[in-house]
Amino acid sequence: MIRFTFLSVYLTGFLVAQTSFSGLNTWTDGQTVGLAGGGYLFSTQNEFRNPAMLPESGRYLKINLVRYPADINAHSIITNGNKNDHRFGLKLSRLNYGLFKGRDIDNHITEDYSAGDIHLQAVYAKPLNSNRFVIGVSGGLFMSQIEKVKANIFTFSPGVIFYSRLGEIGLSLQNYGFVFDSYTDTEDKIPSFIVTSFARKVTTLPLVLEVDYSYFMVRNSSTFTFSGLLNFKNGFIMKGGFSTKKADQITDVSFIKNLFADMGIGISYEFEDILFAIDTYTYGPGGFVIAVGITVLY
Q: Which CATH superfamily groups domain 2-297?
């Protein structure tokens, strides 16, 4: 029942708002879950949402599993490398909405069907001006399928980072592109948005704080996200975040759920060249997301 409700809301978004490809902005990386969507400029386990983060992130192979309510799952694999002053990255993510009971126009039961999204991205970045500036760009193919109906778009996300004395300043344009296969005959609106980020290390603590401002063009709305990452000497890393979306998740159901609504938290442990992570995010009365990941440095 929950899964059916989710799909109904998902499809209603297509038909009413004419905004397709909602899976583009769904979190498929564990650290993003633990930071409540923040962390665009954190070098540790970065997933290159701002592609200019490639040079600072080091070389690694990362695998994530994210579990949403209603048995909805997301997976991703990320790797990167470099040659001279050029940095390259590759990310493959998959969102699986599960199996659904099929019915025809007369409400007769037919074969079960599935729904899901796949996003393949290639990332490139290069430092400039003695590494004070970094420019980057990611391009990819996003493929969405509901039963036998498919839709595809080409995605394009440029970004830039400036390293100043005050901290790191980032700007990225997320999920621009064009549709070349659509679910409907109406014009699809890709859920693109602009992110401005600022991150700074706390001089007296092994702590990095970040604030991100996201403006969503289709919805004409904006969100502030606040996140932090605390490194311990014994290899443990604590992380957490919240955003101004909290007000939209507060209900009269439970004070405790309202208190922890729109809050992410996570912990990682680095042993040798391997990093293990577990992260979670609460939707308030809507349940919670849990993610596990493993990163191998090389």
A: Outer membrane protein transport protein (OMPP1/FadL/TodX) (2.40.160.60)
